[in-house]
Design goal:
Blueprint: H1 16-24, H2 49-59, E1 66-70, E2 77-80, E3 86-89, H3 95-107, H4 119-122, H5 128-133, E4 137-140, E5 164-167, H6 169-175, E6 181-183, H7 184-189, E7 193-197, E8 200-201, E9 206-207, H8 218-228, E10 242-249, E11 254-257, E12 269-275, E13 278-282, E14 292-296, E15 301-304, E16 313-318, H9 322-325, H10 328-333, H11 338-345, E17 347-354
Antiparallel strand pairs: 1-2, 2-3, 3-15, 4-5, 4-6, 7-10, 8-9, 10-17, 11-16, 12-15, 12-17, 13-14, 13-16
Bound molecules: N-oxalylglycine and manganese (II) ion.
Residues 257, 259, 313 line the site of manganese (II) ion (MN).
Domain Fe2OG dioxygenase: 239-357
Family: Belongs to the alkB family.
Protein name: Fe2OG dioxygenase domain-containing protein
């Protein structure tokens, strides 16, 4: 499901969802003489909720398919006539809020006991972002035993090795070629996900409640409760128990999937977009249903509840070029934090918060 980039060569196994993914995915022009140029795509059919919001504010008009479903927040919540249970809140997060969650997504969310895609290879990694700033390198200690299930040094589970630790770049050079190493900046670029609260086990595709975990940070919990309200059954409050943070670099995609591991689908998934603009595809209950494409910008929030939870969805594209990424405001806010600035200019972060039980 996640990061499924398998090239489809045979037209016959291509569903409507796959066809639309392919249409929007990043490809490079083969015969361009200049530097790699992204292939042009026709974006005229991509729904743009920012422009719907502008038009709604100006004259109260909306395209036929778009409806206002809630006015309890300080901004309209839009829905799609054909997709009950799907909610779009354009610009739900202020720029300060976006900056805060970007900072946390980089500095605090990947911290153990939260797991990341790097756990399987390197074991738990602490302070990755600080190590990037300090130009450190993660180095393997070959004298440490592999796969020891030791509680004392923070290792959990036996795929976590704890053989790896951060060192100064110079000290690695002096050790020579013999030991395996990887720079912190490469690890940050290859960070694809981290999990908060109850830890999701990708190999078994379920929540593993026995893995050590912290509660979802309180402020994120409060924010998710507020944002989830339009999609909650009357009189009930959303209970955030787990969150998945997805990190996208240029060319990364999130293949079409369903989030079906939570017990109660009447509860929404609260999904926040940060950083570069992306295209989100919302399909139907079958991969054969042609999906709708829409832009997701930094600060947008999407809710999926009820019937919409049975709809295939994914992210075939993020935009990292200056014109389409729309990160200028964020860049101004991070002008004194060069490492965050460099990261967010060409990356997207998605935080999606779930009630599991
Ligand atoms: C997910 C998901 C959407 C996004 O993580 O399950 O659907 O906007 N993310 O990245
Ligand atoms: Mn999903």
């Amino acid at each position: 499901m996640y990061g499924s980039n398998k090239a489809v060569t045979d037209d016959t196994d291509r569903t409507e969802f796959r066809k639309t993914e392919k249409k929007y995915k990043l490809y490079y022009d083969q015969n361009s003489k200049r530097k790699k140029q992204p292939k042009q795509v026709d974006l005229s059919e991509v729904l743009d909720f920012k422009s719907f919001l502008d038009s709604y504010h100006q004259n109260g008009e909306l395209p036929p398919e778009i409806v206002v479903v809630d006015c309890r927040l300080d901004r309209p919540v839009f829905g799609l006539e054909s997709r009950p249970g799907f909610y779009f809140i354009p610009g739900a997060l202020s720029v300060d809020e976006q900056c805060r969650w970007i900072r946390d997504s980089l500095m605090s969310f990947p911290q153990p006991p939260n797991r990341t895609n790097h756990n399987a290879i390197y074991g738990p990694i602490s302070d990755l972002f600080a190590a990037v700033k300090e130009r450190k390198v993660l180095v393997e200690d070959e004298n440490m035993p592999v796969g020891l299930d030791s509680g004392s040094n923070g290792c959990v589970g036996n795929e976590d090795t704890c053989r790896w630790s951060f060192c100064e770049e110079d000290s690695v050079l002096s050790i020579g070629r013999s030991c395996k190493s990887v720079s912190a900046s490469v690890l940050l670029r290859k960070l694809r996900w981290s999990t908060l609260g109850l830890q999701f086990d990708w190999s078994k595709r379920n929540y593993n409640v026995s893995l050590p975990h912290n509660k979802i940070p309180d402020e994120l919990c409060q924010l998710a409760k507020k944002l989830a309200a339009p999609a909650m059954p009357m009189g009930e409050e959303f209970q955030p128990e787990a969150a998945i943070v997805n990190y996208f670099a240029s060319g990364d995609t999130l293949g079409g999937h369903l989030d079906d591991m939570e017990a109660d689908w009447s509860k929404p998934i609260v999904s926040m977009s940060l950083g570069c603009k992306a295209i989100f595809l919302l399909g139907g209950k079958s991969r054969e249903d042609p999906p709708l494409a829409m832009f997701l910008r930094s600060g947008d929030v999407v809710l999926m509840a009820g019937e919409a939870r049975e709809c295939f969805h994914g992210v075939p594209r993020i935009f990292t070029d200056k014109e389409n990424a729309e990160t200028t405001t964020l860049e101004l806010h991070f002008c004194d934090e060069n490492d965050i600035l460099e990261y967010i200019r060409t990356s997207r972060i998605n935080v999606n918060i779930r009630q599991v039980f």
